Amino acid sequence: MRKFLLTVCSMLSITIVSAQLSEADKVKKGLETKNKDTVAWTKSGFINVGINEGFLHNWQAGGELASLTISSIFSGNATYLNHNKIWSNNLDMAYGLYYAYSTAFIPHKTDDRIDLSSKYGIRLDTAKNFYISGLFDFQTQFTQGHDYSLPRWDTSSTSKFLSPAYLTLGIGLEYRKGSDISIFLSPLAAKLTLVDKVYTLRSPEGAFGVPYGKTAHMKLGAYFSARYVGRINKDISFKTRLDLYCNYLAKDRTDSLGNIVKRDNPGNIAVLWDNLLEYKLSKYLNITFAATFIYDNDIPYSNTYVDKSGIVVQKDNPGKNLGWLQAKQIFTLGFEYKF
């Protein structure tokens, strides 16, 4: 319970800074026209916290005797416009925990994400909505991850803070339509994956694309990122993002004996598709549906594990038919504050 209270407090203690409407309007106008006299900041975003609680006693239909779920999302944007230059920053964070009587209220993680993206661009004089831009993107998580389908899941972790951590640097051409549409293409983008050596030592293939016994792996390739934020009507908004990465340096990986343990090539494009749909019920109450899909050749899927006796056992996973596709879906009814 102490961990739960700390989680709630940390999410609600995020500092919220409101921008003046006049400045936001100026920046948006500057983004949508050739206005070269605008110098201002605009900030926007929201915090969403949802809690679900259940209790059963002598309930003939059966079920979890007592449970508690908390999920939280923060999404913020800060954009600075200085004449024909623009600096846009996006921060997305999410965290969720599930407590149940059947597991002695030991928290199980349902969501965990940190995603920071920053772009700086200079508008081309000959093209109204095109910028020569540089991009920095950083992704990791808050706490340790576990595979709860294993009998002794708490004896080892699958990931943790900064392990893995993904850093992407790229330069390219960006198309911006107002403050709602951004399409960025970089023919030359470097991607660095960092991971604790303890994870790469568990398999001859390493972990998260980092070779066996190493702590970092560099890629060089092409990067595409498209973002869209819009409203379906006054109460429903939709936000989506699609990232694609092609590694020019991809090649088959071999073990110390020269055996191929993983086949790879530049055609194995890494995909991230992020979606967030919001329905506003009242000023502070809303419904949120979030869905994220990831395909990465560096993160294979296995439906088996080796138990302590050395026997290969099949996992009981309802999503096993999805194969290597990573999928996450969160539905939340909760409190939201927009700024």
In brief:
This protein has 339 residues and is mainly β. It has one domain. Helix content is 8%, strand content 53%.
- What separation lies between the terminal Cα atoms? 30 Å
- If strands are numbered along the chain, what order do they take across the biggest sheet? 1-2-3-4-5-6-7-8-9-12-13-16
Based on Cα principal axes, name the global outline.
flat
Order of helices and strands: HHEEEEEEEHEEEEEEEEE
Largest sheet: 12 strands, antiparallel, barrel
Can you give the helix content as a percent range?
A: under 10%
Number of helices: 3
**Derived structural class:** mainly beta
How many β-strands, per DSSP?
16
Sequence stretches where pLDDT stays below 50 over 5 or more residues: 1-23
What Rg is obtained from the alpha carbons, in whole angstroms? Answer: 22 Å
Number of domains: 1
If you average the pLDDT, what whole number results? 85
Our estimate of the beta-strand percent is over 45%
Give structural notes.
By secondary structure, the chain is mostly beta strands. The protein is built from three helices and 16 strands. It has one domain (2-338). The strands form three sheets. Strands 1-2-3-4-5-6-7-8-9-12-13-16 form a twelve-stranded antiparallel β-barrel. Strands 10-11 form a two-stranded antiparallel sheet. Strands 14-15 form a two-stranded antiparallel ribbon. The longest helix has 12 residues, at 21-32. The model is unreliable at 1-23 (pLDDT under 50).
